[in-house]
Design a protein that fits this description.
Blueprint: H1 2-31, H2 35-47, H3 49-60, H4 64-89, E1 92-93, H5 96-116, E2 121-122, H6 124-149, H7 162-193, H8 198-210, H9 212-223, H10 229-252, E3 257-258, H11 261-283, E4 287-288, H12 290-311, H13 317-347
Antiparallel strand pairs: 1-4, 2-3
Helix pairs in contact: 1-2, 1-7, 1-9, 2-10, 3-4, 3-7, 3-10, 4-8, 4-9, 4-10, 4-11, 4-12, 5-6, 5-10, 5-11, 6-10, 7-8, 9-10, 11-13, 12-13
Length: 348
């Protein structure tokens, strides 16, 4: 039965991703905003629904490590896996506004989470700050998107069917939530049987499982030739994961959410570093190439390997984490910056 739920969840995710991308693109045209803005707002918030459901359920059931690991792990997975897979299929592009507005907001909320988690909990005030950050981001994104696109001339007008597109979005989100829930439940059962902790399950199995809507959406969009939606979806989803997935439970659940010190020491800094690496990659050319996608994917494998070593309490976990966070990652960021500058000079 567990294997059946795993397979059925994957099938629902693929179908839901197809419907969501189709409907969201149509609604974006009807509202007069770009695919980048649609990905950063509507699609990003919708695909964060599984993470929100898992975090609320985990917090109420007494597994706060799962909730925090789910949100933080999903953000890391979004950059190192979702965007990497999309870029390997087709290089992904992002507008300059992403660097000036969306990425700084995502980075700011990540740093805010690090500061708020220093006391090992997220209380109601902390949750309110995260939620306000998300609401402000969504409102400004729509306003900026409509203002930027209002004067753009369109050479050909696609048919607008807002009702059909809206239904497509709702059905797609429903399939994504159900598929992710089946996938997470079955995968978590398998992981728990292997003796993994709540935090590790949240950072790996649940984070990847609840990121499947983003992965599916990014792959479908890339295959359809839409190279902007995935980048906007990843950045917007990272904002939603912090403001919605952690902010809402911390605000509404009595006692807030307990934060594992291990997450503050390592996993949140990794999330921040991944966001900075994405900013460097997008700084010139405003795109994520296939080679850069491969590097991001390699980082995902290394990060997952660390989590496995840590869960097994392996002797190599200490040196591995030091090399990973304080040597390999800075070298990667500096190297990416060098390649970016060289590419800019070549183009110029």
């Amino acid at each position: 039965m567990t294997v059946f739920l795993l397979v059925a969840g994957l099938v629902l995710l693929v179908a839901g991703g197809e419907l969501l991308v189709r409907g969201a693109s149509g609604l974006g045209r009807a509202l007069g905003v770009s695919p980048l803005v649609v990905g950063a707002t509507l699609v990003a918030t919708a695909t964060s629904a599984p993470e929100l459901a898992v975090s609320v359920d985990a917090t109420l059931s007494g597994s706060p490590g799962l909730a925090v690991g789910n949100a933080v792990g999903s953000n890391t997975v979004n950059i190192l896996l979702v965007l990497a897979v999309a870029a390997l299929i087709r290089p992904q592009s992002g507008a300059r506004t992403l660097l000036r507005f969306d990425l700084p907001v995502a980075l700011g909320l990540a740093v805010l989470l690090l500061v708020l988690g220093l006391d090992d909990e997220l209380g109601r005030l902390d949750g309110a700050l995260l939620v306000v950050g998300l609401v402000g981001y969504l409102a400004l994104s729509v306003v900026r998107g409509r203002r930027a696109d209002s004067g753009a001339a369109t050479t050909e007008e696609a048919p607008r069917r807002p009702l059909r597109d809206g239904v497509s979005v709702l059905v797609g989100v429903g399939l994504l939530v159900l598929g992710a829930r089946w996938l997470v439940d079955s995968a978590s059962e398998i992981a728990a049987s292997l003796g993994l902790s709540d935090l590790v399950i949240g950072l790996t199995v649940v984070a990847i499982g609840t990121a499947m809507p983003e992965i599916t959406t990014a792959v479908v969009a890339a295959l359809k030739g839409d190279t902007q939606l995935a980048v906007g979806n990843v950045v917007g989803s990272n904002v939603a994961n912090l403001g919605l997935v952690l902010g809402v439970p911390a605000l509404l659940v009595p006692g807030g959410i307990a934060v594992d010190p291990a997450a503050v020491r390592f996993d949140v800094p990794v999330m921040i570093a991944a966001t900075l690496a994405l900013a460097v990659v997008l700084y010139t050319g405003s795109r994520v190439s296939r080679s850069e996608g491969a590097v991001l994917l390699a980082w995902f494998v290394a990060y997952t390997a660390y989590l496995v070593l840590d869960s097994a309490d392996h002797d190599a976990v200490g040196p591995f984490s030091l090399v990973l966070l304080w040597f390999c990652l800075p070298v990667t960021v500096v190297g990416a910056a060098g390649f970016a500058v060289r590419e800019a000079r070549t183009v110029g």
